[in-house]
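Predict structure. Input: Ceramide synthase 6-like, 368 residues.
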Amino acid sequence: MLRPLIDAFWNEDVWLPPNSTWADLAPRPDKAVIYTDHRHVFFPIPLALLFITIRYVLERYVYSPFGRYLGIKGTKPKKPPPNPKLEAAYKASPRTKQQLCALAKQLDMTERQVERWWRLRRCQDKPSTLVKFCENAFKFSFYVCNFVFGLYILWDKEWLWDIDQCYIGYPHQGLTNDVWWYYMISAAFYWSLTLSQFWDVRRKDFWQMFVHHIATIALLSFSWVCNLHRIGTLVLLLHDCADIFVEAVKAAKYARYQKTCDTMFLGLIVSWISTRVGIFPFYIIWSTSIRAPMLLPMFPAYYIFNSLLCLLLVLHIVWTCLILQIAYNTIKAGQMEGDIRSSSSELSDSPNHSNHSSPSRANNKKHT
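Output follows.
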């Protein structure tokens, strides 16, 4: 019963250029070119579970001790006094304070007392600074390793230096083992981020990041099935570059290394604008939109692929506005404040409430 639907979905007229069939792209030992195997698009899912396990081990036994060594505390603010009625009201609507006045009258408390209890209760649901530091340290480590790995395997690939090679000879473009691993590892990491996002630090741009991860996974999957892995590797390499600085800024901020944070933030602005707002739209998307139709016949799936690239560009523009806003506030304040792309915690991201690593570092900050 499902077979007609599956066949209709994987229509060759949709997914492949004219005069091409799935049989032409099917990997077989007798073919001179090694094609991508569409069944491998599911390999990153179990690999994502392995990523989550590795992340748990590293955060617990490497990043957490390292964070404590830097003076980052894993404790949370004190708990509010037990109050069943306030607890029930909080669980019903933790983000609204409209009923505080009514609750104060019912409990014979002042409105300020209820607000203080509400604020303390909300802080209990937020992760500690150490938890957020470990999350960013893991992502920073991955982006550094993946960027170096991607640069290493693509250095001798012709399409890194001439983007037209992404289309010349398509779809009969061979796949190498190093590109296979680059694709599988990158896709597995974004699958792990999509799954772990629901219990990670909840940030204001939760849904933007969720859409970003889904769009990235869709891009990787579509480009893999359609053998468009060359342009996919360029997009991956370009994104990892700026993400290194994103996570470095956050980790340095949580560790209260302000000079390092400011330096990394400057590097973030340069790398982000040059890659996400410069190279990505004016080189990658320009190539997929203008050059590609000149070099190969278009087909419906290619427009889907290009639309997802444009969706990523929209998210880049939104985040660029937020980063520039932080940069403007940084110039006014004299140091980087807040979180990059979002603000996950009013308590830990504020300079007046951040964990101090030591009295001497706090005094140095005052003198600065």
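DSSP finds 15 helices and no strands in the chain.
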